[in-house]
Amino acid sequence: MSRISSREAAILGLLCESPRYGYELEKIIEERGMRVWTEIGFSSIYYVLKRLEARGFIKSGLEEVEGKPSRRVYTMTEKGLAALKEKIKSLLSQNKKLISPFDLGLAYHRLLKPEEVLECLRQYLESLDEREALVERSLQEKVKEGADYVVVALFTRPLAHVRAEREWVEQFIKDIKRRYNHGKNSS
Predict the structure, then answer these.
(1) Residue 64: what pLDDT?
(2) Residue closest to 120 by CA, chosen among 161, 158, 169, 180
(3) What pLDDT is stored for residue 49 in this prediction?
(4) Cα distances (Å, whole numbers) of residue 31 to 71, 72, 141, 145, 174
(5) What is the three-state SS of the chain?
(6) Average pLDDT, stretch 107-130?
(7) Which of 57, 90, 88 is CA-nearest to residue 74?
(8) Could you give the C-alpha distances from 123 to 118, 127, 158, 181, 182, in angstroms and in order?
(9) Which end of the chain has less neighbouring CB within 10 Å, N or C?
(10) Which of 38, 41, 37 is nearest to 155 (CA)?
(11) What is the model's pTM?
């Protein structure tokens, strides 16, 4: 079975619902707030579509639209559906290692002065607050719209991650302050 990326799976999932053209995919991604839980940019949609078509996971054809230029419409193939199902099974059954650039900064944070590290972490907390507010707003919109439980879960899960991350960072700040103050007091 051919493996597909998460970006490819996101596009295949939308094409599984019905045939679509590129700009329509962008509108749906935006309307559904998919960028909260996927990494698919506007510019990558057409790249992914070309890649999926070259691999035989989708096919395309031109659709005539009265008074407008024709547009390329993409349709899922059986091969694409099989690859998507395999990807879903893999995603739902395994905890994958998440690599965060934050961890690289954490590994070498001692190259900075403690005050610099604390300032960076305060800024990180602010960015977490912004992310939480964005996801919370998106979640509330989806709840108001009467969204399905799966859609709600796609927003509550990232919200839980952001909140857990904040808790961890706040504890790490306390640890740094304790170590820094302890070192000052013993000299």
Answers:
(1) 86
(2) 169
(3) 96
(4) 21, 21, 11, 12, 40
(5) CCCCCHHHHHHHHHHHHCCEEHHHHHHHHHHCCHHHCCCCCHHHHHHHHHHHHHCCCEEEEEEEECCEEEEEEEEECHHHHHHHHHHHHHHHHCCCCCCCHHHHHHHCHHHCCHHHHHHHHHHHHHHHHHHHHHHHHHHHHHHHCCCCHHHHHHHHHHHHHHHHHHHHHHHHHHHHHHHHHHHHHCC
(6) 96
(7) 57
(8) 9, 6, 20, 21, 24
(9) C
(10) 37
(11) 0.76
CATH number of this structure's domain 6-93, picked from the four choices 2.20.25.90, 1.10.10.10, 1.20.58.100, 3.30.530.20: 1.10.10.10
Backbone angles phi, psi at 32, to 5 degrees: -85, -5
